[in-house]
Structures are given as structure tokens and as C-alpha cells.
Amino acid sequence: MIKSYYYTPDDGLVKWEGIRAFGELTRREDAILWVDMIAPTDEESYVLTSEFGFHPLAVEDVLSEMSRPKVDDYDDFLFTVAKVLGPPLQDKDIEIRPVGIFLTKNSVVTVHFFKMRALAAVAARLDRDSRLISRSADFFFHTILDHIVDTYFHALNLLEHEVDRVEVEVLDSLDEDILKKMFHIRRDLSLIGRMIAPQAEVVTRVTRDNFPLISEKCAVYFSDIHDHLQVMLSTTGNQRESISSAMDLYFSIISTKTNQVIKLLTILTALFLPATFIVGFYGMNFVSMPELHWKFGYPLAIGLILVVVVGLLIFFKKRRWI
User: Fold this and answer.
1) Confidence class for position 111, pLDDT limits 50, 70, 90
2) What is the rounded CA–CA span in Å between residue 253 and residue 58?
3) HEC-encoded secondary structure of the chain
4) What is the 3-class SS of 223-267, one letter each residue?
5) CB hemisphere CA count around 155 (13 angstroms)
6) The CATH number of domain 2-253, selected from 3.90.180.10, 3.20.20.100, 3.40.50.1010, 3.30.460.20
7) Whole-prediction pTM value?
8) What is the pLDDT of residue 69?
């Protein structure tokens, strides 16, 4: 599916769906065009080369959905691959979707294979205020990247709340589900961190490499996106440390409780070991054992066992083992 937004000073903003003569539309110097391709068919993707003249390698990258975040300068157009984040979900991998963005002198083309809230938000803002696209194509390109980066903030905020909740739950309960939740959170944070780092490199290049299609005025705005990404990288690292600390606390509490159980079992064993020895000693079936025929032999054995057990308890208490 293709959605197009075409702005001219005379007619304002016009919207279409489907294939148009995009090459002719972009010949007008004061016009700005945004073409949003959602899961394009072969016929629709052919527009990228036939109407816009994009390089086949760039088109191949955007259609393969396998490219990592990057920016390539082809002189007459700029090609960027960005990653859009969905909200983190428990027991599922976090949703990461690529979007290809082509920037020309007066047009922006986005290509993606899944519906994306970031681009839907841009379209909704554009419907309310056409000035969003009226300034220039590079500023509109900045707007799209800015909305994409906002998805990272949303995902990180959700994970931050999850980390805070888990840190409280670890102290209240040691359910195995908490451990699973912590592993999922750490996995999501690692995925986000590995994705933000190359995206920050892309924005750095856009800011510093003086691409002809990015004006100096617009490049300043990209530096703001770069600052946001650096903050998110720092936040991701801090949250990973927090969840690792929570996991260490979890295992520490488990270890402490295990040691307490082992300590109790060891004390019980120590208490019954002398009794077992005494009972075993007098359980030998020798004929010449005077105590076996003594009427006070049984009370003596019981009393000896009690004295030894009580003595051990007093000894353990003084050593603060119990």
C-alpha cells in the first residue's frame, strides 16, 4: 500500500493512495512529497527505481529487511535505515522493525513492512498541521527520525517501571516467575542497547558529515536527536546494572535461605549423632555387658542421651550457632 502527502504553497497539502507519477510531482521546486510504502508489492516497489531513480543496492537493502541502521550518501539522494521499537512484552522478544528512508531534494520516501506507530503519529500530526512538511524535505526527514527515536523512550520507560517493580518484588517474594521476569528484562535491555548504538552512529554522521541534502540549520536539530540517543544509552546501561543487582540480591537471598536450611539439618544431625552412638554401643549383642542386666541401665542410657543433647544445645547457643 502507498500513501502520499504532497504539499505545494498554492494548493496546500493533498493526500493520495496508490501509485502516482511521482517523478513529475517532484520536478516542481517548491513542492514537497512524502511517500509512505507499507508492505509494497513488486509493482509498488518498482516505483523506487522507475519514478525516483534510487540505486538498486539501496532498494535491495530496504526490501530485504535485514540491514542494520546506517546512512549512505548517493549524491542525489540520502538512504537511511532506522529501527523502530514496539513495546516490550513478557515472554516474547521485543519487537524491532526496520524502516528505510530515502531523502531527496524535495521528497521523503519511507518503506516498511509492518504498520508503525511512529509513522502513524507523523501522519496524524501532518493531518492536523501541514506546516510540518512545508518547511523543507530535510526538516521533515528529521521529524520522522525524531518520532522513531521517541519509540525508544517509550520502551525504556516501560522497562524502567518493570525494573523498579521487580526490585520491590525480590524483597517480598522469591517466586521463580520473578527470576524469569528479570531475565526477560535484561534481554530486552541488551537488545535495545545493541540497537541504539548503531542508530546513534547514523545520527552522528548526519550531524557531522555535511551531507548536501541536509542544510546547516537542519543539522543542528539532528544533534538534539543524538543527545537523546546518548541519554538512552546511559539509561540502558544503568537499568542493566540495576536488574543485575536485583538478580544478585535474588540469588543471595536464595543462598542465605539454603544455608539456613543446611545449618538446621547440620544441628539436628549433631544432636542425634551422640544418641545414635550410645544406642548403637548398647545395641551390641555381647553376653558379658553388665549394664544390660542392671535394672538402672535403661534410665542411665536415656539420661546420658538427654545430658549430651542438652549439653550440645548449650554449647551451640553460646557459640551463637542457633
Assistant:
1) very high
2) 53
3) CEEEEEEECCCEEEEEECCCCHHHHCCCCCCEEEEEEECCCHHHHCHHHHCCCCCHHHHHHHHHCCCCCEEEECCCCEEEEEEEECCCCCCCCCCEEEEEEEECCCEEEEEECCCCHHHHHHHHHHHHCCHHHHCCHHHHHHHHHHHHHHHHHHHHHHHHHHHHHHHHHHHHCCCHHHHHHHHHHHHHHHHHHHHHHHHHHHHHHHHHCCCCCCCHHHHHHHHHHHHHHHHHHHHHHHHHHHHHHHHHHHHHHHHHHHHHHHHHHHHHHHHHHHHHHHHHHCCCCCCCCHHHHCCCHHHHHHHHHHHHHHHHHHHHHHCCCC
4) HHHHHHHHHHHHHHHHHHHHHHHHHHHHHHHHHHHHHHHHHHHHH
5) 31
6) 3.30.460.20
7) 0.75
8) 87
pLDDT tops 70 at residue 253: yes
- Cell numbers standing for residue 237: 546501561
Residue with cell 547457643: 317
Residue with cell 542457633: 322
Distance, in Å, from the CA atom of 214 to the CA atom of 282, rounded to the nearest integer, reads 98
> Do you know the residue count of the chain?
322
Are residues 94 and 192 in contact, defined by beta-carbon separation less than 8 angstroms?
A: yes
- Domain boundaries 256-318, corresponding CATH code: 1.20.58.340
Tens-digit pLDDT profile for residues 155-173: 888 888 888 888 888 877 7
